[in-house]
Amino acid sequence: xxxxxxxxxxQDYPVKPIRLITSEPGGGNDFGARLVAQGISGPLGQRxxxxxxxxxxxxxxxxxxARSKPxxxxxxxxxxxxxxxxxxxxxxxxxxxxxxATVSLTDRSPNVLVVHPSLPVKSVRExxxxxxxxxxxxxxxxxxxxxxxxxxxELFKSMxxxxxxxVPYRGGxxxxxxxxxxxxxxxxxxxxxxxVHVKSGKxxxxxxxxxxxxxxxxxxxxxxATVTGFESVATTGIFAPAGTPPAIVKRVSDEVARFLAKPxxxxxxxxxxxxxxxxxxxEYSAMLKREMAKWSRVIREAGIQEE
Length: 307
Hints:
Shape: globular
Number of helices: 12
Number of strands: 10
Strand content: 15-25%
Helix content: 40-55%
Distance between the termini: 50 Å
Radius of gyration: 20 Å
Structural class: alpha/beta
Number of domains: 2
CATH architecture of the largest domain: 3-Layer(aba) Sandwich
């Protein structure tokens, strides 16, 4: 009876506009959310309205979703910071496994390992050799604590045994400038922030952090080709409140996947330095659990906490 009621509810869904919560205007989350909202509004037959809520490194938006009615009319599109936050801070007001229902992985983006031209290395192997020959002398730029560039670097240190020093900057832009100006030797930069500087030759790109070569940087090898098993990819996805009827979750997930598979959609995301994915709720849930186990270990071993 409950299953029949859920399916019947889903057949009528949606009958009013859907709210898609994301972070502050102008960022990557906002860019992706607005594209997705526009792309699925027509097929769903209702407007999908983006609602920007910044602050708290995702704690505010996560709590909003956890407290929302599980009826499919409140969704959240956010990067991995939303589920990494409980590992970086105490007293986070939600549990991503208990309080969220996965809908779809929407996009992913590798970091790019770049070095200042003055650093005498041309490959990942040479960088590792140099770092081991000069322990504690090399340094890397990073911005947000627990952000993709920070975690990529710490995973690299953990898997290679090198000693390189973290140099914090007040934002991704200043961190990139630190590498360009030679203040630091290297960085695991986001694709969007560094691609133009790689093309101009202002920095040397050694490898991407994804498991497979990326279309964002054709011809560039992966770190995993040298460091077996290395993978660090920034991801974004859509969540619903826990308890949302599975039939509704599947309806939204199917429309998101169809939209993300369109060539014109892929091209728009590619210009922002990300690759579209699209997944089933089950695939996203499995990936999330694997990633949480992996990064919780890295964060714990490196002693990373929000400053």
